[in-house]
């Protein structure tokens, strides 16, 4: 029996349709299906990863206990809340199978392998054979093909996609230390969340906001020429003056000499990734979190393609799959089919080796945009944007005449203009950030006259989601889907300590974001290249060229460096923001009444022992002796953890029940 584990219920349903049922025979082999629900396991808290004798060190937020030694970790996993029934069902199905097939999403980061092996390992499922199905999407034909051509995997330890993903998830788990450091050296009250991508986003936005605030609009004045069609001719060497009255009147009107006219063409822009799509839709009020939720539901019904792709192009097979559906897609989104005359593959958009292909419409074409409302907010906008972007590839190139000329009497003054001739793909979709020739206008004129131009140094761009995503892409930080997911987290208005604020795509900072930004200069976690290095390490691990354990050990030095830097930056930050220094009390972490909490490790001058902490987190009362009051009196008390409030601030801590 071949047992097939899919990533989620929606995939399970598509596999059921493709293979003919929950169980049966396909291609001469007996199979049975089951499914997960994303990750069903997670790492335990740091203090539960180590021996009991070390738990106090990892519970504590005392800076003296950092950096952690990852070799002390057991890397224990626990079931996610509410997963018991599903795990039992998976075990009951797969424990009877001779072969277990991993049929989770083929994510470039190895996330699909990671969540599958977590389940198989923790459930101790040991069939005679493991294998992997690779599929670009959940279309029936691709599922059937993947089943027939599945590849054997010798073992979990030999699955290098799993090994690289495990390294990445361990790295991120260990990086919790950076949050503790930033919080300790912050205001002592706010949790300043750090992470490879979070910190990069905060740093980039902070630097840009600083550049915007420091910009001074200082004018300069310079002679230029303008012809009767409004085209401007400039001399890059022409002197600039601070005052308009200082500009000399040494030029006269003159004829224009056209030096060249050349017909040029510009192909359609690249296909969108999830980050670019989110940037477009954020300006329409669709938040990143809403995009992710709606897109996932649409993908599950094959309305759109796989979301978490790294591809920017598609394969010839993927091109041919959608070609018969082009007119139907165009009709849904209101594009004239007469514009789609380039129905052959473009070298600029087609490539080999694209597992999922770029984000695009799926094989199922909706009857109308109204039918998409059931998927959630922004569904119609998501489909329209993706479809028009894809359809633009099937329209003709944009053509223009590039004209270049100069002022006859003053040849150093040059004019350049792009005169549109054929609008081409721009009639379908135009999201190119920069046209090949930026200045678009009428024909170069016959004569031109001098005028005094008032100019300014270019003002820095106000940070927007589009701007931020371009910066992250420039530095190759994360995939498009990861950028959108992390952006959704740092701008989450419901979070207790959000870092950034998104208002229709425009970004500002919260107080926590400002503190975080000021504490990051010179740190490793704030270095945008840290994610680039982690991604490079993953590739090296997958190729068998690097030892993940040695790479994880390098984090200790990163932490040591950042402790010193954040300590210095934190002091400067509190001064700059007029934040009163607070006594940073040592905190310990534990589970109390089913939730993870942080409490002070000291009460009344008494430091709790590990045994006392274990009793407190278990809800028990403990006895403290020799407590000294401010007046110098000594007394004994019995107390336990309780929810309390002090000056409007709610917290959980030790509360005296009675004196003894």
From TrEMBL:
Q: Which UniProt keywords apply?
A: DNA-binding, Isomerase, Plasmid, Topoisomerase
Statement: the UniProt record of this protein carries the keyword S-adenosyl-L-methionine = no
Q: Which residues form the Topo IA-type catalytic domain?
A: 157-564
Q: Which Gene3D superfamilies match?
A: 3.40.50.140, Topoisomerase I, domain 2 (1.10.460.10), Topoisomerase I, domain 3 (2.70.20.10), Topoisomerase I, domain 4 (1.10.290.10)
Residue ranges occupied by any Toprim domain in the UniProt entry: 1-140
- Gene Ontology CC: one annotated term: cytoplasmic replication fork
Q: Which InterPro entries match?
A: Topo_IA, Topo_IA_cen, Topo_IA_cen_sub1, Topo_IA_cen_sub2, Topo_IA_cen_sub3, Topo_IA_core_domain, Topo_IA_DNA-bd_dom, TOPRIM_dom
Q: Name one GO molecular function term.
A: DNA binding
Q: What is its EC number?
A: 5.99.1.2
Do you know which PANTHER family this protein is assigned to? DNA TOPOISOMERASE 3-ALPHA, PROKARYOTIC DNA TOPOISOMERASE
Q: What is this protein called?
A: DNA topoisomerase
């Amino acid at each position: 029996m071949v047992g097939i584990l899919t990533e989620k219920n929606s995939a399970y349903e598509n596999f059921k349709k493709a293979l003919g049922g929950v169980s049966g025979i396909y291609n001469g082999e007996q199979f049975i299906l089951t499914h997960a629900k994303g990750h069903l396991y997670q790492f335990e808290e740091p203090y539960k990863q180590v021996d009991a004798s070390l738990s106090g060190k990892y519970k504590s937020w005392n800076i003296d206990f950092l950096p952690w030694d990852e070799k002390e970790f057991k890397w224990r996993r626990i079931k996610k809340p509410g997963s018991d029934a599903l795990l039992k069902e998976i075990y009951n199905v797969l424990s009877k199978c001779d072969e277990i097939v991993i049929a989770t999403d083929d994510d470039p980061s190895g996330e699909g392998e990671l969540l599958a092996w977590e389940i198989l390992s923790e459930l101790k499922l040991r069939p005679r054979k493991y294998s992997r199905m690779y599929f670009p999407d959940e279309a029936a034909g691709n599922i059937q093909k993947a089943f027939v051509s599945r590849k054997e995997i010798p073992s979990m330890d030999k699955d290098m996609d799993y090994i690289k993903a495990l390294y990445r998830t361990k790295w991120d788990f260990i990086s919790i230390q950076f949050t503790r450091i930033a919080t300790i050296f912050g205001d002592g009250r706010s949790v300043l969340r750090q992470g490879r991508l979070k910190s990069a986003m905060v740093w980039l936005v902070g630097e840009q906001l600083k550049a915007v605030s420091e910009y001074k609009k200082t004018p300069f004045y310079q002679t230029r020429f303008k012809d009767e069609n409004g085209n401007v001719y400039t001399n890059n060497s022409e002197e600039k003056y601070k005052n308009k009255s200082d500009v000399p009147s040494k030029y006269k009107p003159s004829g224009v000499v056209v030096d060249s006219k050349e017909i040029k063409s510009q192909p359609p822009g690249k296909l969108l990734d999830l980050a670019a799509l989110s940037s477009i839709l954020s300006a329409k009020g669709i938040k990143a979190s809403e995009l992710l939720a709606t897109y996932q539901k649409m993908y599950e019904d094959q309305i759109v393609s796989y979301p978490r792709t790294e591809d920017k192009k598609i394969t010839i097979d993927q091109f041919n799959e959608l070609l018969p559906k082009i007119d139907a897609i165009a009709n849904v989104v209101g594009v004239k089919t007469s514009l789609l005359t380039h129905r052959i593959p473009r070298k600029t958009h087609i490539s080999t080796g694209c597992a999922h292909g770029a984000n695009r419409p799926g094989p199922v074409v909706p009857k109308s945009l109204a039918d998409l409302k059931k998927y959630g907010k922004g569904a119609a906008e998501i489909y329209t944007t993706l479809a028009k972007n894809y359809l633009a590839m099937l329209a003709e190139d944009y053509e223009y005449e590039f004209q270049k000329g100069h002022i006859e009497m003053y040849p150093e003054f040059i004019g350049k203009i792009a005169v549109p001739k054929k609008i081409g793909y721009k009639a379908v979709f135009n999201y190119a950030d920069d046209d090949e020739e930026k200045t678009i206008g009428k024909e170069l004129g016959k004569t031109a006259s001098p005028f005094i131009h008032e100019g300014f140094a270019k003002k820095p761009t106000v940070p927007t989601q589009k701007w931020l995503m371009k910066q992250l892409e420039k530095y190759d930080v994360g995939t498009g889907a990861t950028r959108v997911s992390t952006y959704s987290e740092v701008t989450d208005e419901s979070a207790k300590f959000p870092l950034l604020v998104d208002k229709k795509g425009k970004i500002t900072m919260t107080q926590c974001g400002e503190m975080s930004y000021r504490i990051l200069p010179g740190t490793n976690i704030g270095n945008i290249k840290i994610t680039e290095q982690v991604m490079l390490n993953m590739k090296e691990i997958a190729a068998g060229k690097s030892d993940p354990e040695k790479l994880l050990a390098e984090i200790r030095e990163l932490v040591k460096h950042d402790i010193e830097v954040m300590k210095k930056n934190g002091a400067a930050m509190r001064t700059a923001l007029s934040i009163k220094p607070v006594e940073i009390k040592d905190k310990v972490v534990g589970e109390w009444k089913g939730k993870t909490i942080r409490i002070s490790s000291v009460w009344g001058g008494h430091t709790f022992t590990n045994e006392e902490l274990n009793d407190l987190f278990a809800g028990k009362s403990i006895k403290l002796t020799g407590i000294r009051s401010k007046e110098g009196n000594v007394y004994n008390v019995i107390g336990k953890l309780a929810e309390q409030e002090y000056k409007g601030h709610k917290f959980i801590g030790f509360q005296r029940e009675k004196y003894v």
